[in-house]
């Protein structure tokens, strides 16, 4: 006979109600009591009936997470942290890679709705905002505007752009190229290039902006940057909107025999473990990935529980100075 909640309660020395509260993460439970319950569950080999719990609470305890691709260092790391923080709330994640395709993203939205997920966390780069606005379920955007009443979580993108541009100016750069994504997409990340424009205006320096869409293949991105450096040999600084673009720019510059950082200084944004592991010399503005993931999960759970949730787009960034500036 399979053990039940009463058996767990007996071994743990608590009431069945307390065991139920621990399993459903309801109300205040001390860490000591929580440990007793989990130790008892392990001792008698008890596994909660997830289907019964879902029916009882009218939830599936699944959350859909849609990102462009987990091969992107930032999105890969953010997904890892989202999964961790969801697990702390007894939720599971259904991961969807949109592959930067609008139709694929819409198909995933339909799939997640059919599977009755309790909510979605979205960080894609496609123009399907109206689809999310019509959804009658909790949704949180990560660095992405999805609708008037959908909360957004991001770092302080303006501060990131300001910090990066000022750093290059302070290092003596006079001709700074800003490489950014598609300006037609409504994203908080657009504030990075806006900060660049304003800082260059303050310093009385010329502005150069190169748009490199996120969906573009790396070979195409390399060609755009290569051609830009050929056309403007005076460029002595590059502010890349993310570290992946910064690494591509670094690769192109080295191909051209440009001395880094003597003749060209490069700075990116993100500061993920993967990039810092493979290109430790890169100077970057680091986003608080763990904090972004935690805040996004907390806000989604609030919405699932019927509470309100406001946008949070000012999480702090910091400069990590390497050898590329």
TrEMBL record:
UniProt-listed Gene3D superfamilies: 3.40.50.2300, lambda repressor-like DNA-binding domains
Record-linked SUPFAM superfamilies: lambda repressor-like DNA-binding domains (SSF47413), Periplasmic binding protein-like I (SSF53822)
A single GO molecular function term of this UniProt record: DNA binding
Domain HTH lacI-type: from-to ranges: 3-57
Pfam families (UniProt xref): LacI (PF00356), Peripla_BP_1 (PF00532)
CDD domains: HTH_LacI (cd01392), PBP1_Qymf-like (cd06291)
UniProt keyword terms in alphabetical order: DNA-binding, Repressor, Transcription, Transcription regulation
InterPro entries (UniProt xref): HTH_LacI, Lambda_DNA-bd_dom_sf, Peripla_BP/Lac1_sug-bd_dom, Peripla_BP_I
Name of protein: LacI family DNA-binding transcriptional regulator
Organism of derivation: Anaerostipes amylophilus
């Amino acid at each position: 006979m399979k053990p039940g909640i009463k058996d767990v309660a007996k071994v743990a020395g608590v009431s069945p109600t307390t065991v139920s509260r621990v399993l459903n993460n309801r109300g205040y439970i001390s860490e000591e009591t929580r440990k007793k319950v989990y130790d008892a569950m392990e001792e008698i080999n008890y596994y909660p009936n997830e289907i019964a719990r879902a029916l009882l609470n009218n939830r599936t305890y699944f959350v859909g997470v849609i990102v462009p691709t987990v091969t992107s260092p930032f999105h890969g790391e953010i997904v890892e942290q989202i999964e961790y923080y969801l697990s702390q709330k007894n939720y599971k994640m259904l991961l969807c890679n949109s592959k930067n395709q609008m139709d694929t993203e819409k198909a995933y939205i339909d799939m997640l709705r059919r599977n009755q997920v309790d909510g979605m966390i979205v960080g894609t780069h496609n123009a399907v905002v109206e689809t999310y606005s019509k959804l009658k379920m909790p949704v949180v955007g990560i660095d992405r505007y999805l609708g008037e009443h959908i909360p957004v979580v991001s770092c302080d993108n303006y501060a990131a752009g300001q910090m990066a541009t000022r750093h290059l100016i302070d290092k003596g750069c006079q001709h700074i190229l800003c490489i950014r994504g598609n300006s037609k997409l409504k994203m908080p990340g657009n504030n990075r290039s806006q900060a660049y424009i304003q800082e260059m205006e303050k310093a009385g320096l010329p502005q150069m902006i190169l748009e490199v869409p996120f969906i573009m293949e790396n070979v195409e991105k390399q060609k755009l940057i290569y051609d830009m450096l050929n056309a403007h040999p005076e460029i002595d600084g590059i502010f890349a909107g993310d570290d992946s673009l910064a690494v591509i720019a670094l690769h192109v510059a080295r191909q051209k025999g440009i001395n880094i950082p003597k003749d060209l200084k490069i700075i990116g944004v993100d500061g993920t473990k993967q990039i810092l592991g493979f290109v430790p010399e890169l100077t970057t503005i680091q986003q608080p990935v763990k904090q972004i993931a935690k805040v996004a999960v907390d806000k989604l759970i609030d919405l699932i529980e019927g509470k309100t949730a406001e946008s949070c787009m000012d999480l702090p960034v910091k400069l990590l100075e390497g050898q590329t500036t």
